[in-house]
Specification:
Radius of gyration: 22 Å
CATH topology of the largest domain: Aminopeptidase
CATH architecture of the largest domain: 3-Layer(aba) Sandwich
Shape: elongated
Distance between the termini: 24 Å
Helix content: 25-40%
Strand content: 15-25%
Number of helices: 11
CATH superfamily of the largest domain: Zn peptidases
Largest sheet: 9 strands, mixed
Structural class: alpha/beta
Domain Peptidase M20 dimerisation: 204-298
Keywords: Hydrolase
Pfam families: M20_dimer, Peptidase_M20
Family: Belongs to the peptidase M20 family.
Protein name: Allantoate amidohydrolase
């Protein structure tokens, strides 16, 4: 599958940091725009028609135009800040390569097949994960989305036209291939797996207010230091998640006035929490918030918690999932703790499934994310088998 390796070589340098080796492919900025141009070029090389909706989602179509029941595959091209190479682009490149395999087999599709590149899946610029797919299916209104701002205060409504998307009209099925973001396939010694479900997950903003003061002249006992409240809250999140076997992370923090010689006046921090059930997620986040407020009472600070986004558990379509597992043979079926566009489409009533490709490092959202070429090619073959059964049953 030389086409896969050639496409991957083309994408490898785009948006890569010379210092860290990580990727900065934030939506509607230079690196991501270059990848969008690459997507259009790859589609044109295959004679595919590309449609773009008012939010920037792209789909390259192959096969008959008439009739419902279209099948979609693909993923996203954007990255987290200083992210890995495979999260997202592997699914897009593999989709083009799988189409090449179908054509080489002489498959004549009876259903239209699309290759998607959903925009702002990571939420790394405008803070809302799976933003493009949410807008495409109507799970998020444009009236709300257009007011989202990035770290520089740029409004989404000033970046894209917005409106109403018809890109997924007539779609019945979505299959997304993704690098695994963990070590399950490594432990199971399997190159490819099928997704069963996505854990419930969400993001909460913690605003901790205190009193700015001088770092040298203010006695420790006279301070109302929000950093202490935040620090204890971060430790509490770690402890509560470890005790319950769930996930809790404070990965982003904003400090004001952010001076070395000043006690801060305000901390804004974002909690990412994930759990095996909605009940477990509620217990976890409730315990973290309770400990934060107890600590704030002792520190003379205050805490305000805002739920920014929460997604419930997503179970992928059982018939599609089981059919893929049977078609691919003896492959593991496993849940994922990461959110994906496939989860948004499944919640919108579009039968969805996922394929995972082994990540030998088990590390993701990091420059250390990886996948072996042989496993990637196994993923392409698995995706081609899955799509063949859907577009030419």
């Amino acid at each position: 599958m030389a086409d896969f390796e050639e496409m991957w070589r083309d994408l490898t340098p785009v948006g890569r940091s010379a210092s860290s080796g990580g990727y900065f492919r934030q939506p509607w900025l230079s690196a991501e725009l270059e990848l969008r141009a690459w997507f259009r070029s790859a589609a044109a090389d295959r004679g595919l028609e590309v449609e773009e909706d008012p939010f920037g989602n792209l789909v390259a179509w192959w096969g008959p135009v008439a009739g419902d029941g279209a099948v979609l595959t693909g993923s996203h091209l954007d990255s987290v800040l200083d992210g890995g190479a495979y999260d997202g682009p592997l699914g897009v490149v593999s989709s083009f390569a799988a189409l090449d395999v179908l054509r080489s087999r002489g498959v004549s599709p009876s259903r239209r097949l699309g290759i998607a590149a959903f925009v702002e899946e990571e939420g790394s610029r405008f803070g809302r994960a799976c933003l493009g797919s949410r807008l495409a299916v109507g799970a998020l209104s444009w009236e709300e989305a257009r007011e989202l701002t990035d770290r520089d205060g740029v409004r989404l409504g000033d970046v894209v036209e917005g409106g109403t998307s018809t890109l997924l009209d007539g779609l019945s099925t979505y299959v997304e291939l993704h690098v695994e973001q963990g070590r399950a396939l490594v432990d199971l010694d399997a190159a490819v797996g099928v997704g069963s479900a996505i854990w419930p997950h969400g993001r909460w903003r913690y605003d901790v207010a205190g009193r700015a003061d001088h770092a040298g002249t203010t006695r420790m006992e006279d301070r109302a230091d929000p950093m202490l409240t935040y620090a204890m809250t971060a430790l509490a999140a770690n402890k509560q998640a470890r005790l319950s076997g769930q996930r809790a992370t404070f990965g982003r923090i904003d400090v004001r006035p952010n001076g070395t010689n000043a006690v801060p006046s305000h901390i804004t921090a974002w909690l990412d929490a994930r759990a095996e059930s909605s009940e477990a997620l509620a217990r976890l986040t409730g315990a973290i918030e309770r400990q934060a407020r107890e600590r704030a009472d002792r520190d003379g600070t205050s805490v305000e918690v805002t739920r920014e986004s929460v997604s419930g558990e997503v179970s992928f379509d059982a018939a599609l999932r089981d059919g893929l597992a049977a078609r691919l043979g003896d492959v593991p079926v496993l849940p994922t703790q990461a959110g994906h566009d496939a989860g948004i489409l499944q919640d919108a009533g579009i039968a969805s499934a996922m394929l995972f490709v082994r990540n030998p490092s088990g590390v993701s959202h990091s420059p250390y994310e990886s996948a072996e070429t042989a496993d990637c090619l196994a993923g392409v073959a698995a995706l081609a088998d899955a799509l063949a059964g859907l577009v030419a049953p």
